[in-house]
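Objective 1b: paired records.
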Amino acid sequence: MIIEMTVETRNLRIIPCTPEILEAAIAGNKSLAKKLGVTVPEIWTEFGIGALQYAFDKLSEDEDERGWWTYFPIHKQDNKLIGSGGYKGKPTAGGTVEIGYEIATDYRNRGLAKELAVALIENAFKDKRVKSIIAHTLAEENPSTRVLTKSNFEKVEVINDPDDGLIWKWELKKQ
């Protein structure tokens, strides 16, 4: 099982969400700010409450999922929540996890998405079960594809998703 602990990087304190933290996030920004002791801007996520509720449900259903869902990046200097990230569940039987991340608009183009992604990568690879990490992006060059490229991911597949159209699958294998 992944060690569920706060990850520190140069600019970020990355907090793993427990069911209690997710409950506070679902309840609203004021509740979350109080729970974490940080500033929570009005708009800090584009994923929405649905994603938080889904992660809450998964964590509540299975103790083995702890540490494999949502993480909140706190900008240390500003003590402010600036997005979210994490994994889409525990490692598969083949040793794969999927990452996702987002940074609030006001904090983009500062290298923070890469900082968050690298922390998630290093955190996942600490678990001996994890052999590879995947991610999916829109099938076009964009900030997310640049983060993945700079983090040594390789584009491995083009997928025609029924909801999103063409998307790119990226992979990073453990060395």
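Objective 1b, second protein:
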Amino acid sequence: MAYKDPERQRAYAREWMKRNPEKAREAVRRWSKTHPEQRRAAKRLYYARHREQHTLTMAAYHKAHPEVLRAKSSAYRARARAADGRFTSAEWRALVDIYDGRCAYRGEAGPLQVDHRIPLSRGGTNAIDNVLPACRTCNTQKGQMTETEFRARLDAERRAATPIE
């Protein structure tokens, strides 16, 4: 029912949305799909008006869900290098669980980083089967080496550190 008074119309619309949440969501989805440029403009405007709150909300979310941030940053780096493949934060969590929350190279517990078996710089993909969880030390030391090259280096270092009897 249309009202001549805009405030009364808005109040009616708010009540209707409360009574019909599924229909309201579907209507918003349809509108967003048919008006993509207006939707982007509205999102930009909202973000500009609520920048500080948005920044705080996202910081809290990323602190609570570090695996999401790792997957996002890895995807960003892969896109920058035009690498194929991608993985989700759920796939990353599952991979970390497989390694029991430990570094794939030295088995140390602690904060883990995404490490590519074949580095993106050497043509590797960003698919989950080319990813390992690694501690910061291993990931930094590995650099542009492949997994095989780095494991060979670690073995050589262990042999050199072991005293000969």
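Residues 8-49 form one domain. The longest strand covers residues 112-116.
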